[in-house]
Amino acid sequence: MDTSSEALTQPHQILIVSEDACQKVIGRHEAFQAVESVFSSMAKGSAYNFPVVREAIGHANALYGFKSGFDREGLVLGVKAGGYWPGNVVQGRTNHQSIVALFDPDTGQLKALVSGNYLTAIRTAASSAVSIAHLARKNAKVLGMIGAGFQSTFQLHAALEQRDFEKVVAWNTHPEHLTRLADVCREHNLPFEAVSLQALGSQSDVIITITSASEPLLQAAWVKPGTHLACMGTDTKGKQEIDHRILAQATVFTDEIDQSISIGEAQHAVTARILSAEQITPIGEVINGLHQGRQSEQEITLFDGTGVGLQDLAVASAAASLAEVRGLAQRVTL
Ligand code: NAD
């Protein structure tokens, strides 16, 4: 073995996978498969997330941080760095900005840099879609959308593939933004109606929340029996989208319990002592057949989707492999 200093510092090649390449190779189907599979691995203990760093940087009202993890079975190691810059959209950029760095788990060498903006949206939509596929009533007909920001159309597209929805109702703090959801419904030939939060709760069989709210929008009394809620917006301490009493009425599932009780929607119910970590089930257990999931037509199920690093790594790894095969990744020597 050549251990001369020259050999030890020899350059190696990495892949650069652009935003455009990610959009070409990862569709909803690929994202759903990657996310469902990594949730399953997490529940088996063969993939684990490292503690999240997420901080308000005191500039541009931004939240910045790192999500990382290791999938021992899939041999995917990496980190997503980035965050949320709420002022971006008025300048024509998306509020979420991120990049995924993938490392060789055998050597620690950087393997790929994968643009993370589109992937974040598609993996977050896949996460709620996985929850709907496994937990919503089969006969769910009305989908309620709370939020109409950048993520919302990804969420809506992915949800519509999971059940035979016959109508979409929606609410947003700025109602004028609801047109983007109405446009998606038109594409799917589905009736769309802008409604109050109370009307949304009383009609919907499945509700997706995807806002940056920091106070409860949906009240417990407005949610009807048998509803499935996918709470996707709360991913930071202090954020909240729904009345925390809903979590005491519901059977609660999550991507990861540690995140659910600290940065997810469950943080408030746990603080109020109406829910404990032991009462929350990782959705991977349902995927793996260890938990039955929904047990009755009347049961309210709730998925607290906090967004884990392994989701990002799973879709980024798939994007890097597919982009390489299709000649869409650039090779750069470090
Ligand atoms: P966006 O900035 O494009 O849209 C924000 C949405 O929240 C809009 O509908 C806006 O009207 C609404 N909103 C903002 N403040 C509100 C308030 N005080 N009350 C009620 N509604 C309010 O953001 P986005 O990209 O659509 O993301 C939405 C949220 O989802 C963000 O908070 C983001 O951090 C979160 N998110 C979570 C995950 C996850 O994995 N769980 C992944 C990505 C984004």
From TrEMBL:
SUPFAM superfamilies xrefs: NAD(P)-binding Rossmann-fold domains (SSF51735)
Protein name: Ornithine cyclodeaminase
Taxonomic classification: Bacteria, Pseudomonadati, Pseudomonadota, Gammaproteobacteria, Pseudomonadales
InterPro entries, alphabetized: BhcD-like, NAD(P)-bd_dom_sf, ODC_Mu_crystall, ODC_N
Pfam assignment, any one: OCD_Mu_crystall
PANTHER family found in the cross-reference section: KETIMINE REDUCTASE MU-CRYSTALLIN
Source taxon at top rank: Bacteria
NCBIfam families in the cross-refs: ImmsucRedBhcD
GO cellular component terms given for this protein: cytoplasm
